[in-house]
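[audit] Reproducing an earlier prediction to check determinism. Same input, same settings, fresh worker. If the tokens differ from the archived copy the diff job will pick it up downstream; this log only records the rerun itself.
[audit] input (141 residues):
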Amino acid sequence: PGQKKIPETALRDPLVIEPARADAKPLAARLQAHQGDVLFHKHRFDVFTNENVPTVLDVLAPDDIVLYGVATDVCDKAAVEGLLERRPHTRLLVVTDAVKGIDKDVSEQLLKDWGDEGVRLVKTKEVVEEGLVEDLARAGA
């Protein structure tokens, strides 16, 4: 039941970051020692309601963030807008065939607006089969 998982989205040793503010130094140490995925527990639609997200982003300092999931016009909207505001230097990619909104028209307009704001709109095939993330990592190295 539920969404079909593909190997590329299967969780690897997830570290769950709870929303209660954590002390930055121990959190940073946990993140630096962790080799798996990082998941943010949240109580609302906006991932940034988890007070630890900015610390995690600062510690990990990603060059690229690939975003997918639901709903385009709710949770994804909050994540994209929050990332554009807080990490304007980070390349943000939205996987358009791996997001879905509640309101189709609003979601389509959001994707257009995000593209106009510099968000790179990509397809799953580019990320999974064509090695887009690896290419970006090599280019940033």
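[audit] rerun output stored. Observation attached for the diff report: The chain has a mean pLDDT of 92.
[audit] end
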